Structures are given as structure tokens and as C-alpha cells.
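Check the record.
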Amino acid sequence: MLRMKVILKRLIVLCLLVGIAVALVFLLPKAAGAEEVVVTGDVVNLRGGPGTGYAVVGRVTKGQQLAVLERRGDWCQVRLSSGQAAWIAGWLVKAPAGSPTLEASGSGTLPTAVEVTGSYVNLRSGPGTGYARVGGASRGTRLAVDGKSGEWYRVRLQSGSLAWIAGWLVKPVAEQQPPQRGADGDEEVVVTGDVVNLRGGPGTGYAVVGRVTKGQRLAVLERRGDWCRVRLSSGQAAWIAGWLVKKAEPVSRGDGETGGTPQPAGFLPRVFALPVRAALSTDAPAAAWSVNGNYALVNGTTGEVLFQLQKGDVFTVTVARAPGSSVVEAVYTMQVERNRLPFGVFTGPLVLAEGQDGKDNWFNLNADGSFRRYRGNLTLRLHEGRLLLVNELPLEEYLYGVVPREMPAHWPMEALKAQAVAARSYAYYMLKYGSNQFYDVLSTQASQVYGGLDAESPRTTAAVDGTRGLVLMEGGRVVPAYFHSSNGGWVENSEDVWREYVGVSRGKPDPYDRHPENQHYGWSVRYSVYELADCLAAAEYGFSVVTEVYVVERTASGSSRIKRVEVVGFDRNGQPQRQLLGNADKVRKVFSLKSPPSVLSKEYDPVSGQLTAVTFTGNGWGHCLGMSQWGARAMAEQGMGFSAILSFYYGGATVGQVGECSKL
């Protein structure tokens, strides 16, 4: 009996709670953002901001109902079912059935404007105190009336956006006077604050878009209340608080002529001589960066300066699939935050641009879990749903980060200089003949290893500076000066290792490569037939098992390295498979060998006679074309200069200045 009483009491309490909840739903005003709209267009774009100039971040279809978070002019910021926010054109949506009736302006019963009577009054996203606060207005502020619902006025702000204000906190007045406008340069003001924010609209609620310093003169384009819209030296317009400027006095230009002084320079990007574009990552899911010195974030399509960074600012960017886009036709965006606050959504490239002024400029980038410093610019671009990160900087400064990653900084100076000239020649060649649209070189061994500012060393920097502008040429044309760690005693012909004939890459014996500290002689690698199949499958050759491997051809240099092999076996469906690996470097890469092998030995099962394993044996490390870095060290230790080293490894090439290359 007691248990039944307890259960009955709990049921009564539960019913009361449900009743209260239902009453609240019907009696309380809507929650923040509860205003809703219905899509009227068949398929409507969602954008990253309130205008058609912003990136498309998704799409919605006719009849979808969306919660409104904010209104700006003719645009609505809406909340999607995914929880993300986006902007939609107001003329492509309508209020759902049952929404509060809106009395339009011009009906004859509404005032043309209202004046705020409260000391400070909230502006809201809808007609009620339950709607989100979108701003505020102080006593005496006049606002143009756009409509009315109940006791609430819908007002148009000076920015052009719409908001709602309580009718009992305003009084009707005559129509606002239009904002004062002047021709560009008719009026000037001088900044009086030490460092003053520039904003995207006439109020502190707008985003900071830049900063100016005390004494700067700015041309006034327009005044709204206590705010001035000013023209910057970059040609852009922004808003500044009127109480932080004063009217500029005319300045004499001589002979009785007066007028404004020349504008101080805004952000001016540094112009690079012979810029190199090095890809730092081709598939980063996200990135973060900070800066030291003079940098700005620039729209890579329009050239617009989005923000001038300050020391301490940390920007992050992540790739996200736009809401409404399908997996098949995915639309990706870059979502950028500054100091953990939303900054913007972009689809086009962004450029972290180095400025002309400032000392010790560099940016600190994290794209793989650790921060590294780099000189120059950083371009961020969407590529197949990932980030392509490209560092652009002058050729000589790029080499500062290459030479120490390609050759130990403590090696002899003449060897370091030979490395600098070879690396410069390769990079310079790629500037002209590289096949990628967005970058010239990779930062890995696929091109030449580049480590940025953190890799730099005084000795290698001195080697770069000591050979500034020097490249290898043949017939007035820069040559691709390939190099490697160790050739195992033989330099190979380019057409044996790859396919192309390069005149300065000729095979010959190398008596200098076998340095006492060179550990790349006498290596061997053993693979079972199944491990061979795994190597081939990783290179996208469809083998499940290998039954035989034949040496088809050897190199012509005299080293008799293996140039071509034929592999026989079965694919994953049990069908016979044959594959020819057609050059020495292909053999090296497919089987993950240190260099093109000299010997291939095979093991067979004594009972079945079937192949069970193969062993590759060889000398050296790398493709064995061009300069051996170990050989360069030995030659330098024997007293030879960098020119003699280069002459030995690149027969027929001459060393000259970049400007002497007539056929680049």
C-alpha cells in the first residue's frame, strides 16, 4: 500500500511538471533565434556572409524552415539542422504561416522614425524580449522605422541591417536626415588616439578590420552619428570613432596653396626577387599560424587586405564540407578563427603576406602537430577537400633552408658552396619548367629538402651568400643539377635512371665517393614473394603473389646496376600478371631500396621448385645522378674548390650568374 502511494505521488508531480512545460511553451515569448523563415526558391545558395560576394557554403531547397539568428539588410543569418550558421537572401524566404502580422512602413499609421527615450535600449532579432540581443542604442538615437508588430518596431540601423526595438522605449519623430557625405578628400581628420581600431561599420559592435596610429590623416567619406567612414591609403574604406579623431588643419604646400598632406603608407606587401613557391603540405586537414613582424591576411583572389596581424594573434583554419553539399558534389570551405573567435568562411585562396616594413619578419606554422618558422608568404588553398600550404619567398632565402637540410652544416665550406649552387640551379630550373600550377617545388626529397627558418645555420647561410646568384649552365641555359647522398662509386646516365637525356648527367666512375665515414656500401634487402607482392601493390601494381623476377637490362655506365626487371605472378583474382619496371629509379622506389641495385639473387623451394624470396644488393644511397654529396665532401677535404667539384660531377656545364641564363 505504501509503495502505491509513493508511485501515485510521483505521477502527480510528473503531471504538474508536464503541465507547466506546456504552459511555458504557449505563454512565454519565443527563445533567442526563434524567428523562422521558409525557403521559397527551388534551390537557394547559403553563403558565408550577408551578400552575393561571399563564398557559397551550402544549399537549401524549397519549403525548408530555418531559424533566424540575425538580419542584416536584405539578408538573414540562419541556423541549419547541422547546428552551423549561414546567410540566405531575404527575398528568397518568407515568414511561415502563423507568424506575427507585420505592419509595413508607409502604411500611413507608422512613424517614419523613432527616437530612443531610455538611457540604453536593447535591439533584438525579433519582436519580443525572448529574441536574441543583436545590439543596443543610447538615448537620443534616431532610427528609421521599417515595420511594426504589436508593441515592437522593426528599425533600420545605420549599417543597413534590421533589428527590433520595444515601442515603449522610443517616441515617434520626423524622418531622419540622410547621413552627411563628402567627396573623397573634401574633409580630413587626424587620429588623436595612440592606436585606434578601424571597424567594418559605425559602431563598436562591428568587427575590427585594421588599426591606425596617432597623427595619421584620413579622408572622410561619410559621417553617421559619432562615426566617420574614412578612406585608407590602401584605397579601402573603414569606420573610425569620431571622438578619437579631430578635424585636420589645412597644410600649406607653398605659394599659397593649401590641402591635405600625402597619406601615410598602409600595408604594402613585400615584392620578392625570383620568388620560389615551396609546398609545405599538399593535404593538411587544418593549420595554425602566428607571426613576428609585419604581416597581413589577404584575399588571394581580390588582393583585399582582410586583417593586419599583431604579435600574439593566433589564426587557425580548418577544412569543412559546406552544409547542404553532397558527398558526391562536396563544397569545401576554409573556416578561419582568430584567437579562438570566428573570423570568416572562405573558399578562395588566402595569403599570409609579408609587409615591406618591419624587421625580423617570419611566420610560425603548425600543419602537422608542431610549429616551424618560415620566411616570406604563406598561401592557403583548398585542394580536394584538404589544405595546400605553399611558402613563397625569394630564391636566396629559400636556399637558406635547403642547404642545411641537404648537407651537414659542419662539412667543409667548399662542399657547402657546391651544394648551394646545385640546389639553386635545380630550384631555378623548376621555376620555369615545373609542371604544377600552384607550386614550384615540394619541401621533401621528391624535390629537395626544405626546412625553413628553423633549419638555417650560419655556415650554410654563408655558403649561400658566398655563391649568390650562381647557377650551372649549358649552352646559356640553366640545367637541373641533380644530386644525391652517395653513388656507390659510379655516377649513372640520366636516361638509365629515368628516361630523359640530360647532357650534364653522364655516367662514369667516382673515385671520391667512398669516404671513410660513408656507410652506404654493401647494403642488402631480402623479400619473400609475398612481401614483393606487397611492395608492388603499394605502387599500384595489382599482385597478390610473385612467382618470378627477371633482370631484363642493366645500366650502361659500367656499374652494371639493374635498369629494368620483369615481375611475373598472379593478381588478386588469381589471374596471371606480368609487369615491366622500366628504369633503374623505378626499381629502386618500388622495392624501397637505397639505390639502384647491382645484384638480384633468388631462392627457390627445393621440393616444388617455386620462387620463395629474392635479395637485392648494392652500393650507394639515392638515384646516383649528378653530384654525390659524400664525394663533394671528400674533394673539399682534399683542397678542391666548389667550381672543381661541380665541374667533375656536371661535365660540360659552366658556372655563371642567373642573369647570364639566356634561355630560361
The chain has a mean pLDDT of 82. The first helix runs from residue 2 to 27. The chain has ten helices and 51 strands. Residues 494 and 502 are 6 Å apart (CA to CA).
